[in-house]
Amino acid sequence: MMIKPVFWKNNKVVMIDQNALPLCERQLICSDYRQVITAIKDLTVRGAPAIGVAAAMGAALGALSIPAEPVEKFQKTFHAVCDEIEKSRPTARNLFWAIERMKEHLGSAILSGKKNLAGELVKEARRICAEDIEINRQIGQHGSKLISDGDHILTHCNAGALATAGYGTALGVIRTAREQGKKLHVFVDETRPVLQGARLTAWELKKEKIPATLICDNMAGFLMQQNKISKVIVGADRIVANGDTANKIGTYSLAVLAKSHRIPFYVAAPISTFDFSLKTGASIPIEERNECEVTHFKGAQSAPGGMKVYNPAFDVTPAKLISAIVTEKGIITRPYSAAIARLHKGTN
């Protein structure tokens, strides 16, 4: 049974509470768009594609509470709801992509004379969710060509079903390779400071019965030195025009290590993660999160009180360290600027 981290049911947004995993499997039911905003902020739902789906559904929830007439006021109020949702987290491009798509859909519905505008927005949010699952499967099909029988694959953070509407990006590639009968083993970075690898990726792989070993983040280089890693594959939160990629903090370190050990380093992400407006990774906004994520875990203090903390949630991997980027349209390789320009042209 496929893991569905966020979905629409009875005019409510239902999410797996990822903060409770792996010890407790429970759902959060949101009946107000503000609850969705909180869920995005506190990592109840996380992962760029999943955040995008949640944002679209949150916008649809907001639309259901807006009076249908007059249309101009409906549109203005809906845009205000969208603006609130956009402020929830700054780095994942999918959030902004989804909100832009919802606004555009509303504009089209108004121009075509649709009466039930809120209903149209609900349909669009559900469409975004369904499309994401199919996109992930396409990424898996393309990316599986990069996976060989017997590979030992290192992954970082969680780019699985939990990070999407279902199936996953980086883990989607691994899932597809397994479905094709390839034997492989996954090394899972714990992913400090909130352990998305240990808590979420390990949980998914156990559910799927995919052979896996959990390691601390600082063990990766040693494993590479011992020739225990064949490939590295990660997801992405934002990819810009030259191929520079923002992903969970620690990704850049792995890319440097992989380059040093001549290990292929792959990124898997949907086209909705690409920000064609930014030329280089230097322009990507990097979210800084609460210091308690570093000084505490599950309420237990692990550092001296009053200690100064720096807690960026993401880092940027330069395109020159990335061997290939897997999208639903296929695998792109260097020179990324030209390949991504063609990709952008194909989406317009």
Kindly summarize this structure in a few lines.
By secondary structure, the protein is α/β, with parallel strands linked by helices. 41% of the residues lie in helices and 17% in strands.
List key phrases describing it.
Rossmann fold, single chain, 11 helices, Four Helix Bundle (Hemerythrin (Met), subunit A), 2 domains, alpha/beta, 348 residues, 16 strands, 7-stranded mixed beta sheet, globular
Please estimate the helix content: 40-55%
Element string (H = helix, E = strand): EEEHHHHHEHEHEHEEEHEEHEEEEEH
Strand line-up in the sheet with most strands: 6-5-4-7-10-15-16
Structural class: alpha/beta
At CATH level 3, the topology of the largest domain is: Rossmann fold
Radius of gyration based on Cα positions: 20 Å
On the 0 to 100 scale, the average pLDDT is 97
Query: What count of helical segments does DSSP give?
Result: 11
What's the CATH C level of the largest domain? Alpha Beta
Ranges where pLDDT stays below 50 over 5 or more residues in a row are none
Q: Measure the end-to-end span.
A: 35 Å
What profile does the largest beta sheet have? 7 strands, mixed
- In total, how many beta strands? 16
C-alpha geometry: globular
Tally of discrete structural domains = 2
Quaternary state of the chains: single chain
